[in-house]
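anyone seen this seq b4? input:
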Amino acid sequence: MKRSGALLLLPLAVLLSGCDFVVLSPAGDVAAQQRDLLVVSTLLMLLIIVPVMALTVLFAWRYRQSSTTATYTPDWDHSTKLEL
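predicted toks r here
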């Protein structure tokens, strides 16, 4: 089983060996600022995206139909604040 997993990763390794990080090797001041902007914006995006994706999976797993540990009993029958 381990051998087949390694064989599946071999084409990916060959494909990625030709990649080069030209975008992240600036040759001037403006390019260095653009690289910094790209890195900061990517990190800020990941700061939002990773928890949202993780919580989506967590909620889907916890409140799935076959789960017996989490009971879903909403108390929505009456709300005076909303009805006024």
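The chain has a mean pLDDT of 83. Residues 28-64 form one domain. kinda curious what u guys think
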